[in-house]
């Protein structure tokens, strides 16, 4: 039996993951949020009331939430599909177990059976302790990856339940430090990393020189153009840590000779509002949409970032629309330019690379952005140098990296490593069987999480973007 298959031999260990608790939000960050977490902290009684009021509002306004809370038959088909359950064996980390934490409260306050028969009907009174120890702890152990929904016969999407639980928690004054800190930086500076405009300008100057040194090409890297057909918005991590991916975007855009620009005001495509509240998601997206309108962009192209793609694809039009431009991910864009014959490659430049692809959860399950990145890799790598992982770890069944959903924070590092194990074991198989040495991960969160995961589980691969390889193989003549 392979190490991957071994992981599924689990035995429930109640309370095993109770110690992994995200740090609470700081007041300085809450102060700049569009959604205000109440301060001073509400009394215990008030917290319970605020949570229930919001839950009531959400179950009424989002039919899917109420439906998912009603229709689970507890068949258990989802249990071993969650990376955090596999990693911790805590039944409250099984999707059905996690949802049950909220379902008990829903039953108690919003169903006749729960109101009349309480615990006999599977209902539970909401107490301040339950808010902290059950709801806050376990709904911040879900990466909203949605793998469970693929295996549920009813299509129950636990990520939707998590999103509702987090919104209601936030109303009661419970939010995480990491998520609120990141969102506050976007509102005040423009991006998750808090890179101000002068630093961004310096970085782009360095990148321009690097491109000249590495590829012998003079490129334009426009920032804050007054008018442009394309607004390109990357995850800010690409400006600092994933510079090879950034170089890939820049080379492609220069090669095509398009009218494009980066923006210092809208310098972040990631949208942590998806992990927190619709209001924040709308406010973060509004920065990009404002700039796109101002410059008359016909297209907004997003860099390699999974959840940003989902936030834009599924929520921009609904929350911020109607939009006067079209949106696409850079993977869709580059693949379409290859199909049109406008980009040519010399795959021998990547002869030392044998790659596999990690499908980011949101590309795979919030749409179907899985073929484009494979198509690109097959064009930029020598024939036979792209190897897919096992079928139950890719595409719609891809396992999460273990750091999505706003959980890429150090205080739960042990949990992150446990959650990353299924992906690590799937990668290990292709490393050992086929000599894979590169894990292409077209998402900024993956690029931060997977190198740690691979190191932790002793899987010797380099983790990088897809456009890193595009840059190396792109022909200029
Ligand atoms: S698979 Fe669906 S119906 Fe079955 S326990 Fe899980 S959430 Fe409930
Ligand atoms: S959405 Fe992902 S992390 Fe959350 S319960 Fe489902 S499988 Fe687990």
CATH fold node name of the largest domain:
Fumarate Reductase Iron-sulfur Protein, Chain B, domain 2
Ligand species: iron/sulfur cluster
Order of helices and strands: HHHHHHHHHHHHEHHEHEHEHEHHHEHEH
| Low-confidence parts | none
Q: Based on CA inertia axes, which overall geometry fits? A: globular
Task: Please describe the biggest sheet, giving its number of strands, its sense, and whether it closes into a barrel.
Answer: 4 strands, parallel
- Helical amount among residues, as a percent range? 40-55%
CATH class of the largest domain: Mainly Alpha
Average residue-wise pLDDT: 96
Strand content bin: under 5%
Our count of helices gives: 22
Q: Write down the domain tally.
A: 3
Radius of gyration computed on alpha carbons: 23 Å
Number of strands: 7
Secondary-structure arrangement, i.e. CATH architecture of the largest domain: Orthogonal Bundle
Biggest sheet strand order reads 2-1-3-4
> By helix and strand content, what is the structural category?
mainly alpha
N-to-C CA distance: 50 Å
